[in-house]
Protein 1
Amino acid sequence: MNNSNYLTSQSGAPIADDQNSLSAGERGPLLLQDWHLIEKLAHFNRERIPERIVHAKGTGAYGTFTLTKDLSDYTIADHFNGVGKQTETFVRFSTVGGEMGSADAERDPRGFAVRFYTAQGNHDIVGNNTPTFFLRDGIKFPDFIHTQKRHPQTNLKDPQAMWDFWSLNPEAMHQVTILMSDRGIPANYRQMHGYGSHTFSLWNAEGERFWVKFHFKSQQGVVNLTNEQADKLKGIDPDSSQRDMVVAITDGNFPKWTVNVQIMPEADANTYHINPFDLTKVWPHSDYPLIEIGELELNRLPQNYFAEVEQVALAPSNLVPGVGASPDKMLQARLFAYADAQRYRIGANYNQLPVNCPHATQANHHQRGGAMAGTQCPYHGSQTGGDASVNYGPSTAEPKLEDASKLIEPPLRIDGEAARYSRYDQDDFTQAGNLYRMFSEDEKQRLVATIAGSLSQTSVDVQQRMLAHFSKADADYGQRIQSALGLVV
C-alpha cells in the first residue's frame, strides 16, 4: 500500500476518518483511545512556541552577500576572503518591544540580524537599525526590558517606568535621542540602515587582531514616518513592513544594502579617547572611516513563516574562524543569553532545523539526545557526523580530525582586577549633544514634541532628572524640553 495516497498520522499510519471522533454511541462521550484525535489536539496545543521576549514580531528573507573587497589582511574568515565570493544569507528584521500582534509602525528600534551561511559555519551579526544602544552592561538588560513591556498590574505600557529607568541611567541618552527623533519610526525594513552595533574582532593568518564594526547602508535610501503618519498606518495596516518586504521581493525589486566596516588596530583601543567597547558610543568616521566591502541582496522569501522566520535562531555567539567577540560588556552578556533563549524557546537541538543548520558545511560534534534529536538537515543529513553512537572525544572509534590549530584566535591580553566597575566612562552626554546639533530646526521641534508627549505622563521628579540629562547634552535641548513640559527648575 502506498501511504502517499492517504492522509496519515505523524508516524505515517493511514487515517480512515479525519472528520469524526471516536465516540461511545452516536451521542455518547468520546473515547481516550482515539489516538488520532489526541494527536491532532496535542499538536494544535503546541503549534506556537513561546514568542521571543524581545523582537517578537519579525520579517525574514533569504539573499546573497557578495564580497567586493578582499579582507585577508584583516581576517581568515572564508566569506571575507576572495573578491566576488558569494555567500547565502538570511536576514530577520523586527520591532523590539511589541508582542507578535503589535503594529510594525511603532516608535521602536528595529532588529537587523544577518546570518551568513559560510563554508566554515554560520556567522550571525545580530544587530539593530541604530549604531548604539541604551545600555553598556548586560546585567541591566532584564530591568530595562521590563520597563518597555507592560505594567505587571495594569497590563498597560508604562511611561513612568520607562523614563524613570532612563533618568537613573544617563548612559541611555544617545539612544534615547535617536529613538525619539525622526529616526525612531522607520517606514519599512527596506529603507533603513542596519548595524552590528557591537565591536567585534577580526584576526588574520599572521595572528594580528583588529577591532571591527559592521554597517549595512540601505541602497533604497532611508525613509521614516512622523507620529501622525505612523498612527494612521498602524490602523490601516498593522503588518505594513511585512507586507512591504513581501511585495518588493515578489515583484523582483530585491532590496540591497552596501556593507561597510570600520576597522581599528588592536593597540589603538588602549589609548583611544572613547572606550571602543562601549555600546552607547559610536566611533567617529573621521578617525575610522567606513570601508566598503560588499553588497547584501535579499531575493527569496521563506516558504514557511513559522519554520523559517519564527524558528530561526540567530545568536551573536554564532562566530566563525577569523571573527570573534570583544570585551564589549553587552556583547559578552548576549553571547550567553541569545543561544540560551533559543534553547528555551525551541529546544536543545534547534540548530538541526533547516533554517539554523549550516548550509555550506557539515556539522560534526558529540552532542546527543534532547528534544528533536535526529532531525535531519536537508543540506547535509545528520548533524553529528561520524559515528552517531559516539558521544565523546577524543575517541578511537572515530577517524582523527584535521589539525585545527591554524584556526585558533590569537590570545587577548587582559589587565586589571576582577571587580564590578560601575562608571568606567563618565561622558554620557557629548555624543547625544552632537547628534542633537546635527538636526534641522524642524527635526528638533518634532524631537522635543515627541519627548514631551511621553515624558509628561511621568512624575515631576523623573521629569526633573531627565531635564538635567538633556541640558548636559545641549543647553538648548534641555531648555526646549523644559518649556514644552512647563517645568520650573
Protein 2
Amino acid sequence: MKNKPNFWGLSPIIIFLVLITVCGFITGGFTSMPLLVAFMLATICALAMNPKDEKLSLSEKLDIFCRESGDATIVLMVIVFLLAGAFYSIVGSIGAVESTVNFGLSLISSDYLLVGLFLIACFISFSIGTSMGTIVALAPIAIEIADQSGVSRELALGTLIGGGLFGDNLSFISDTTIAAVRTQSVEMRDKFKFNLLIVLPAVIITCVVVTLMSMQVNKAIIEGGEFDLLLLLPYLTVIVSALLGINVIAVLCIGIFVGCLIGLLNNSFTLVEMFTKLQQGMGWMQDLAIIALIVGGIVGLMNRYGGIQWLLESISNRIKSKRGAEYGIAFLVSTLDVATTNNTIAIVTAGPIAKKLGNQFDLDPRRIASLLDIFAAGFQGLIPYGGQYLAVAGLAAISPIAIVPYAFYPMLILVMGLISIAFGFPKFPIKQTESKQAILNQ
C-alpha cells in the first residue's frame, strides 16, 4: 500500500530540529541539547502519531520502528562504528597517534609550516578517520606554529580544521564515510574515487592560499618529538586493505589485530588491558550506534505516516532533472548538518531520502554517497558552534567565529561540490559485470 503524502508525517524530525535550535539559542551553545535525548523525544512524538486517515495501534507502530531499526544496513553500520571505536582506542594506547604526528613534523620545512600542518592533518585524519581526534591532537602544535611564526592563531586553526575535515570526508574508516556508503549500498573504494576527484582541486587551492598567506612572516623551525615507524603500521594496513577492496569490517579487524599485536610486543598493555581498551573504544561509539538505530526507526515511521513521501513529492515537484535532484540532496544534508552539528547524523538521516530520490531520477548511488559526504563535511567545517571549533577555540582562547573565515578547505569543497553538480563530473561507467539497474537498485 502506497503511503499517502502528509507533511505532518515529518513532525518527529521537525521536533528534533526545533529542540536543537531552541536550546542552542537559549543556552548560547548549540551542543547543549544531547542528541540522544533529542532523538528519544522525537521517537515519543513519532509513536504518538498516526498515518493520514488511519489509526495504528502502539504495537503496530513499535513493530515498524523495530523492523526499520533492525534493517541490515543500519545493523551493519552499528557493527562498523563499534569496530572503528575499538581501532581508535588501540592505536591511541600504543602511541601511534603521537608517533604519526611527530613523523609528519619531521618532514616539514620551516618555509612551509602552515601548508605542512594542513597536509599532516589530512594524512592523520585520513589514517584515523576522525576530524576531532586529529584536531585535538594537533591543536597545541598549530598554536605553537602560529605563535613562533607570526601568523595568526585564527589562520593556523582554520587550516587545521580543514585538514581534519579531509579525513572525515575521505577516510575509509570515518563514520561519515561509512554512513554514506552504507545508506547508498555502494563500495567504499567506488565512493572514494568519485569523492577524491571532486575535492582534489580544493586541496591544491588550499595549499596555495595558505602558502601565500604565510609567505610574509618569519619562519620558525618547529621540531617534533621521537617517532617509531612501526607504529604507523596499523594505519598503513587499514589504508592498503581498503584500497585493495577488502570489506570494511575485515579492514577494521585487520587494523585492530595489527595494533593489538604491536601493543603486546612493545608492552603498551597486557592481554587483559588490551581487552579493556577494546571495550573502552567501542564504548565511545555506543551513543552514535544507538542514535543510528533510533534514526532508522524514526525514518521508518515517518515513511509510514507519509512524511517521506510528502518530502519526496515536494522536492520532486521542484526538480525537473538529475541535476536538480542532486542539488536537492545537497540542500537536504547541508540543512540537517547545520541543525544537528553532526555530519554523521545528517548523513544517516538524509541517506534514505537521498536513495529514494536517486532511484526516482536514475542517479548513480556512488555519486550520491560522495555528495552526501562532501556537503555534510563542508558545512561541518563552517559552523562555529560545532565540536571542532569549540575544541580549538578553547585551547587558543579566541572566538570560534573568528576562525571561520580561515577555514578555506571546507569552503572550497562546497564550491567544488556545487561545480560538480553543475557540470556533472566526475562520471564513471558501470562495470561490465554489473547491470546499470542492479547498481541503481542496491
Protein 3
Amino acid sequence: MLHTIEPGGLDARLLRSAAEGGSRFALAESARARIEASVRAVRELVSRHDAVYGINTGFGKLAQTRIADDQLAQLQKNLVLSHSAGVGKPLEAPVVRLMLLLKAASLAHGVSGVRGEVIDALLALLNADVLPVVPEKGSVGASGDLAPLAHLSGVLIGIGEVFVGGRRLPAVQGLTKAGLKPLELGPKEGLALLNGTQCSTALALHAAQRLQRVFDAAVAVGAMTVDAAKGSDTPFDDRIHAVRGQPGQREVAGTYRDWLHDSPLRQSHLHCEKVQDPYCLRCQPQVMGACLDQMRHAFNVLLTEANGVSDNPLVFADQMEALSGGNFHAEPVAFAADNMALAIAEIGALSERRTAMLMDPVLSGLPAFLIEHGGLNSGFMIAQVTSAALASENKSLAHPASVDSLPTSANQEDHVSMATYAARRLHQMLDNTAGIVAIEWLSAAQALEFHRPLQSSPAIEKLHATLREKVPFMHEDRLVAPDIEAATRLVESGVSLA
C-alpha cells in the first residue's frame, strides 16, 4: 500500500504501518514547491556571504568559524562523519523505520533547505526496508539526536552499514538495493539531517505502540483474575466512576464490565459474606484509567512532535531568512517518555500484586501457589518471585530521565533533555511488564480451572482458551520458563474483546 506524506499529516495508522514495515511511502507533490523554495533560499544566503549557522560556519562551539564557499560540501560531509559516534547495539528495525519516516516528514515542511531528492532517498530506504545500522547510545536529546541521526544519514552518502533482510552490509550495497547512488550533500543538508528529535521520538512512539498492547492485555488478564479470585464486579459499576469524572477511569471500568459480562462464576457467589476485595482487584479502574490518560497525553505530544520541525536553523524562504532557535531540544519527548514510564511501571506493579494475591490461599481461597499436592510441587511460587523482580526493576527504571542534564560542546550546549535515554529505557520496562502480565495470565488461567465446572464469562473463557493453545494446565511441577515465554509473546501480540 502506498502512503502519501503531507507535511503535518502523520497519524497513528501511518506510524503503525511504518513501524511494521511492508508499506510504501512517497512525498506529496504538493510539498515540493516549498521544499524547492527553501533550497533556493539557502543558495541565496550563501551567495550573500552572510554568516549563517551550519551553512557557512562550524558547529556547536565552533559556530564562530567561517567556512569558505569551496569547502561547504566538505563541511556537510565532515559533519556526518564526525557525528557518527554512537555506541551500543543497533536500534531495532521498527525504530529505524520510524526514524526514516519522521526525518522525511520533518524535512518535507520546506523550512530546512534540503532538496526533494534527499527526502525521496530517505523514503526509498524505508520502502526497500534497507535499514541503517544505528547504535542505540550516544544522544543526550538536544542539538537533536546527533549521533543516531548521523549514522542514519551517513548511509545516504555511502558511509556506514545497513541491514537488508537481516544481513549486515556496507552502506553502498544497501543503496544499490534501494535503487540509489551515494549523494553529495549541499549546504545545510547534513546539518538538517542530523538536527532533530527523530530518534528519541521514534523510540517513544514505538514504545507507545507496544504499550497499548501490553495495557490491553493487562486489563483483560486483570478481569480474569477478578473472576478467578471470586472477586466482585461492583467496583466497576459506572455510577462509581461517573461521579469522579476521570475519563480514563470511567472508560476502563466499562472495559472490565465487558470482559466480566455474563459470568456464571460471578453469579455463583453474588451473596457471599465478603464485603470488599483487595485494592489490586477493586481499584483497577482507578489505576489503569490513570495510566490510560497518561498514555494518551504522551502519544498526543509525540504525534505533535512527529508532525513538526525540530531542525535548526530554519529557513523561511518568503522572508529570505535563516533563524537560529532551539526546536531540536527534546524536552517534550523526554517528559512524554517519563510519563509513559510511570504508566508502564504501575501496570506491572498492579499485575504483580494480583499474582501474589492468587498465590495466597488465605486471600484467594485457592490451593497455595495454584498447584495440587503442594510441598511436593511448588507450582507458581517462583514465577511470582520473577514477577516481583521485574516489578522492582521497573521502579528504578521509572526514575525520570528528564531531570538530568550534562553540558556538552564546551558548554555551548549547556542544558539537554536526555530524551533518547528516556525513550530507550521504555522498551526494557515494557519487556519487564509484558513478562509480569504473562505470569499473571498463567496464574489466573490456572486458578480458573480450580473452579470447574463453573465457567467465567464468554470473553474470559475465550482469553483462557487462547493461552491454553500454547500452555497446558500445570498438574505437577515442570519447566516454567517456556510457559512464561509463550505467554509473553501472546501479551506482546495484543488481545481484544472482538
Protein 4
Amino acid sequence: MAEWIQHLMDSMGYLGVLLLMVLENLFPPIPSEFILPSAGFAAARGEMSLLGVILAGTAGSVLGTLPLYYIGRAFGEERIVAWADRYGKWLTLRGEDIRKADDWFDRYGTKVILFGRMVPGVRSLLSLPAGMSEMPLPKFLTYSTIGSALWATLLTSAGYFLGENYDQVEHLIGPASKIILGLLVAWAVWIFIRRKKAQANE
C-alpha cells in the first residue's frame, strides 16, 4: 500500500494528496499518518510546497467527511449499526464503533469533532453521528475544517522536518493521539461533574 500511495502522490502531486485524504476518511486502513508526512518530505525536497500540501490535505480530509455525514443523515443509527455488523469487517468497522462514536457525540457536544479529527480511529467515524444528529452542515464543516487543518499541519510539518525519517511519524503520532484522547475524556468528565453539581444546587 505504501508504494501505491507514494506513486499516486508522485504522479498527481497535490491532487493525489487530496484524493488520498478523501479515501483515508472512507477507508480507515489508508493511513493519513503515512500520506501527509510523505508529502511533507516531498515538500522538503522541493517537489511541492509545504503550504500547498497542508491545503490539499485539509481539503481532502474535509471532503472525505461528507459521504459519511450524509449517510448518517439519511439513515438512522440502528440501520447503520446493523450494516456495520454485517459488512463493516471489510472496512475494519463494527457496529459497536458506530455506537461509541454516537455516544461521544451526544454526550460531549459538537466540539469533539474539532479535536476528534486529530485522533486516528475516531476521526473518520465522527461524521456519522454528526449526520445522525442532524448537525447543521455549516457548523459541521467549520469544526471539521479547523480540526483537519491542525492535523494536516502537524503531520505534514513532521514529515518536512524529519526528512528521510518521515516514516517514523506513524510511530510517534500514537502517543500524541492518546494524549489528545485523554484530554477529550478529561474534558468530558469535567463537563459531566459540572452539570451534576449544577443539578444538585438546583
